[in-house]
Design brief:
alpha+beta; Jelly Rolls; 2 domains; five-stranded antiparallel beta sheet; 4 helices; Germin_Mn-BS; Germin-like protein; metal-binding; manganese ion binding
């Protein structure tokens, strides 16, 4: 009997391995609705590819990431993403770079990247950073105070943030494991959706009075992600 169980386990593992190797490709955009008529297709999962013979050095080049960005906004930060929209040669390469500027006491509000993990390095100033694990892992908070040269990793899909606790500006650079990692800023998405989510739903979810939700939904939610 034990031999049969062992054999069955091997079969299950083999099937799991086969299924994993035959899985669908990861999405490179929020959604890609199928159409039956190819003449009506405008988007693909990613970008259409240029003929390699027509490629040139400019397809792999971007300049200006050394220039400080304007942080005079409600959240006190500015994110400059150098993704496939700015460097066409990033298509299919699975990477993105970003510069984040922080005003004194500015923050990059809690957000997630649904399609990529992030590695962040501080090049100027101090940052208090962290991420929260999923429900499955007990919503644990992992935080660090980073100085110049310090590095921190935010796993894919985890809600994370950065806050500048100092009187001086801060600058960080981040790499992401997707040509278009996507950004979901929690407050903007929940309270600033178009059209708005039914306030009764959010009032019950956040366990607050409905008027609190309605007030939040009337507020302007700034997008610091260029």
């Amino acid at each position: 009997m034990k031999g049969a169980h062992f054999l069955l386990s091997l079969v299950v593992l083999a099937l799991a391995s086969s299924i994993a190797s035959a899985s669908d490709p990861s999405p490179l955009q929020d959604f890609c609705v199928a159409v039956d008529d190819p003449h009506k297709a405008l988007f693909v999962n990613g970008k259409f590819c240029k003929d390699p013979k027509l490629a040139n050095a400019d397809d792999f080049f971007f300049t200006g990431l050394n220039i400080p960005r304007d942080t005079h906004n409600p959240v006190g930060s500015n994110v400059t993403q150098v993704n496939v929209d700015l460097i066409k040669g990033l298509n299919t390469l699975g990477i993105t770079l970003a510069r984040i500027d922080y005003a004194p006491f500015g923050q990059n509000p809690p957000h997630t990247h649904p399609r990529g993990s992030e590695i962040l390095v501080v090049v100027e100033g101090t940052l208090y950073v962290g991420f929260v694990s999923s429900n499955q892992d007990g919503n644990r908070l992992f935080t660090k105070v980073l100085k110049e040269g310090d590095v921190f990793v935010f796993p894919i899909g985890m809600i994370h943030f950065q806050f500048n606790p100092a009187h001086a500006p801060a600058v960080a650079f981040a790499g992401l494991s997707s040509q278009n990692a996507g950004t979901i800023t929690i407050a903007n998405t929940v309270f600033g959706s178009d059209p708005a989510i039914n306030p009764d739903v959010l009032a019950k979810a956040f366990q607050v009075d409905k008027y609190v939700i309605e007030k939040l939904q009337k507020q302007f939610w700034y997008d610091n992600d260029n």
